[in-house]
Amino acid sequence: MTEDSKDVYKELQKHLDQMPIGYPTTKSGVEMRLLKRFFTPIEAEIAIRLHFSWERDYETLDKIFEKTKDLGLSKDELEKHLDQMAEKGIIYSKTADDVKAYANAMFLIGMYEHQVNRLDKEFLNDFFQYLTQAMGLEIFGTKISQFRTVPVEESLEYHNEVANYDELRTVISELDGPLAVANCVCRQATDLLGHPCKVTDRRELCLGFGHMAQYYIDHGLGREISKEEALTLLRKNEEEGLVLQAGNALRPAFICSCCGCCCPVLRGTKIFPRPVQFFSANYYAEVDRELCSGCETCVQRCQMNAIRMVKELAKINLKKCIGCGNCVPTCPEEAIQLIKKDQEIDPPPTTDELYDRILERKLELKGKK
Questions:
Q1: Rounded to an integer, what distance in angstroms lies between the CA atom of residue 95 and that of residue 327?
Q2: Could you identify which of 56, 88, 191, 280 might form a hypothetical disulfide with 352, taking C-beta atoms 3.0 to 4.6 angstroms apart as the criterion?
Q3: How crowded is residue 61: how many other Cβ atoms within 10 Å of its Cβ?
């Protein structure tokens, strides 16, 4: 590899780091190993000339061709490279009215999730090293979550005022475009590393909607399903004790079904003294100690280790509780309920607007340093 081809990866790292969830450097250089795994030198050159968009501002092949003429590629050659990059999951692509368009993907959420069904241990070792050394801080640094917690439906049955975006049936019914289900990349990772999920034996758990669903369908990463099938799947996930984490927008692009043993977000935040600050959640659980029998069912159900026994009765740690409601419907004494927070967190209308907010906050924090 020439010195010039090495430099292009440095430029690509700087380019990707300008995204809402950036791509920071490390002392170990693990981020460069990941880039070289994903991008050939010419693909890196092309990616530097693309911009990030979730759905709003994709660039057409014609426009990208104008920006890449210095690379000496024909339009057909450029299209072939772009399609290969999209197939590898390192950029997004879509086609509307027979016109192809493309955009950069972030590393998280983006390139990592697109490696579903094609993981290997070498990649995972680098991924978790990068997550520990730099990416974890990048994800949580602004405290604006890419996810919002959708409470278990049964846990909300006694609430008179439930926001539409907190009600699972409404969230699904109002979605536009296709729905897709895919294997969970996080559980595939823990399977490969010899630590299978302790909560569920199923792997086809993750849902994508609209643009994300179409991307997964087009590239064979998932299969299309109906809204009824999606609701059935999500209710099964709730029954098993998984935490529903939707994209943090009124019309989410996905719903993950997470556990504390496999999900990097849940597992990663549990090490902090106040993980609730990293989640967008409108409820918290509360135990009626007069009704609690001390059976510990809720302790076993909680994916955030937010419940412990004090004097043989359950007690909620509100610094850890993310209001998922997993503990409510399985309490045999009906001693737990979800309480709505005084200050409700309203998600932004779209995912693009969510990332606008994250980027604005990120730049504010950089300006204060």
A1: 43
A2: 56
A3: 18
Q: Tokens representing 307?
A: 């419940």
Do 46 and 104 belong together in one domain?
yes
Contact between 285 and 339 (Cβ < 8 Å): yes
Q: Tokens for 129?
A: 């090293």
172, 209 Cβ separation under 8 angstroms: no
Instruction: Give the chain's length.
Output: 369
- Assign residue 337 the CATH number of its domain: 3.30.70.20
**φ/ψ of residue 181, rounded to 5:** -115, 145
Strand order in the sheet with 59-60: 59-60, 99-104, 91-96
**Cα–Cα distance between 345 and 141 in angstroms, integer?**
18
Task: Kindly state the percentage of the chain with pLDDT values over 70.
Answer: 95
Q: CA 210, CA 204: separation in Å to the nearest integer?
A: 18
Q: Do 49 and 100 fall into the same domain?
A: yes
- 209 domain-assigned: yes
Which residues on neighbouring strands pair with residue 247, listed in sequence order?
147
Judge if 20 and 45 occupy the same domain: yes
**Same domain membership, residue 214 and residue 273:** yes
Question: What does the pLDDT read at residue 343?
Answer: 87
- pLDDT recorded at residue 257: 96
One-letter amino acid for residue 369 of the chain: K
Q: Which residue in 316, 289, 290, 279 sits closest to 301, CA to CA?
A: 316
How far, in Å, CA of 51 to CA of 16, rounded?
9
* Number of helical H runs and strand E runs in the chain: 14, 13
Provide the β-strand partners of residue 52.
Answer: 104
| Rounded distance between C-alpha atoms, residue 86 and residue 66, angstroms | 19
The pLDDT mean for the chain works out to 92
HSE-CB at 76 with a 13 A cutoff on CA atoms is 0
Q: What is the CATH number of the domain that holds 92?
A: 1.10.10.10
